[in-house]
Write a structure and sequence with these properties.
about 425 residues, alpha/beta, Nucleotidyltransferase, domain 5, Alpha-Beta Plaits, 3-stranded antiparallel β-sheet, 9 strands, about 35% helix
Length: about 425
């Protein structure tokens, strides 16, 4: 919110646009100043937006395969998805895609908020990458409805990451909520003459009287302000969405954690505010049916400490009560029905992968990871070094991170007591 001095300064600048600027530069400056004033007015008039409870997941190279399997099955069961994307600004270059936000609408009190960090994906040959591709294959299904504030074309720049093709993004029914909201507002809030507006409640709310050009599209911020009567903070529109938001990607100090949490909240609220708009406009009903049951994965999950995994008895809920009544129902008869969305080969792949993970966890209970290994070392050389130092390894995995090209190594040990001698 602007201080009184800042507010008065912007008012003065609007009245004194430098004449030495070109017409285009004058118009751009005027738009920026008017936007700041409008933001100030919204902050002063409306309370901040508060999302409904949700569970957040991150998809990147650090995502556990069991989590991806769960998200794939949950996506099968969710027929309605809200989508948004974020990019980073590069001076004198096209914006670069950085983040895909997905909100799975589920028949529980909580939705799933998923952040796909495309700058931090695993290598293409990795099993995790295959599962992420399978997740998007499940998402872009003919039976799905995807709601987006704009057009689904904003996904096209993400095709280069090879998670999905341009053709696949058109498989679902894509709803441009920005266009739909404009039609709704023009239909329900026509212009009222001044003589008919006797009190504040009956003031004209047509686009022109609200200061919105009838030929322009609505911003999500204006839609939430004038329909939900809340302020949606858009101050972080220009942010580094590619820095790695998931705390599992690297060690972070308190300042870095706080900064990332602000970006996460901003990115999530773009989907969550649209969800509340859709509820307010009654775009879809919140009735539970057998076709919408969530099918949880039955597996041993004690090997992970991520606090938002589906597998925990009480997963961390964002903006929810301390002990949420998370209602996830398993129904064997429904499971076969939902799995028809995937081919037999894809279902077999998920089943085999799940069994492999179970067996691996039973056999290898302990893992040690070392980051930023010298890139000149091959796997064979690494194994030889470990053996020379009598480190009782049973398996060695090397992961080269995209973009940073950092080389990490993890090795597994059968017996817990052997770890203390390393």
């Amino acid at each position: 919110m602007l201080s009184q001095d800042e507010y008065q300064k912007i008012k003065w600048q609007l009245k004194n646009i430098p004449t030495k600027l070109t017409t285009q530069q004058q118009n751009n400056l005027r738009k920026r100043l008017l936007k700041k004033l409008h933001e100030h007015e919204l902050v002063a008039e409306y309370p901040p937006f508060q999302p409904l409870p949700y569970i957040q997941f991150f998809i990147n190279y650090a995502t556990h395969e069991l989590t991806l399997l769960h998200l794939i099955e949950s996506t099968q069961c969710s027929k309605k998805v809200i989508l948004d994307t974020e990019s980073i600004i590069i001076p004198h270059q096209p914006n670069k895609p950085a983040l895909i936000q997905l909100q799975l609408i589920l028949p529980t009190s909580y939705s799933y908020m998923i952040f796909v960090e495309v700058w931090h994906l695993p290598p293409e040959h990795d099993t995790t990458f295959d599962l992420i591709k399978l997740f998007f294959t499940t998402l872009f299904n003919h039976e799905k409805t995807i709601y987006i504030w704009g057009t689904v074309k904003e996904l096209i720049p993400f095709v280069k990451f090879k998670l999905f093709s341009t053709e696949k993004i058109y498989f679902p029914k894509n709803v441009n909520c920005q266009d739909e909201f404009k039609k709704y507002w023009q239909k329900n809030y026509p212009h009222k003459s001044t003589s008919n507006t006797s009190n504040e409640d009956s003031q004209c709310k047509c686009e022109s009287c609200l200061g919105i050009n009838p030929n322009d599209v609505w911003s999500l911020q204006n839609a939430t302000a004038y329909k939900l009567h809340v302020y949606l903070n858009k101050s972080l529109t220009i942010s580094q969405f590619n820095i790695g938001l998931d705390s599992q990607l690297k060690h972070l100090n308190d300042k870095e954690i706080k900064h990332r949490q602000q970006i996460i909240n901003y990115a999530a609220n773009d989907c969550l505010s649209l969800y509340q708009l859709l509820l307010e406009l009654d775009y879809f009903h919140q009735e539970q049916s057998d076709d919408d049951m969530i099918i949880p994965i039955e597996c041993d999950t004690s090997s992970t400490n991520r606090n938002v995994y589906f597998i925990e008895a009480c997963p961390t809920i964002v903006n929810g009560p301390t002990q949420p009544p998370l209602s996830i129902t398993s129904n064997t008869s429904n499971k076969s029905k939902h799995e028809k969305e995937l081919s037999i080969e894809e279902r077999k792949k998920i089943h085999n992968r799940r069994c492999t993970l179970k067996q691996r966890k039973r056999y290898y209970h302990h893992k040690i990871t070392r980051k930023n290994i010298d890139k000149r070392f091959t796997i064979k050389q690494i194994k030889n070094v470990l053996k020379q130092h009598d480190i009782p390894i049973t398996a060695v995995n090397v992961l080269r991170l995209p973009f940073t090209n950092e080389k990490n190594i993890s090795y597994r040990i059968k017996r817990h007591r052997q770890m203390f001698n390393i």
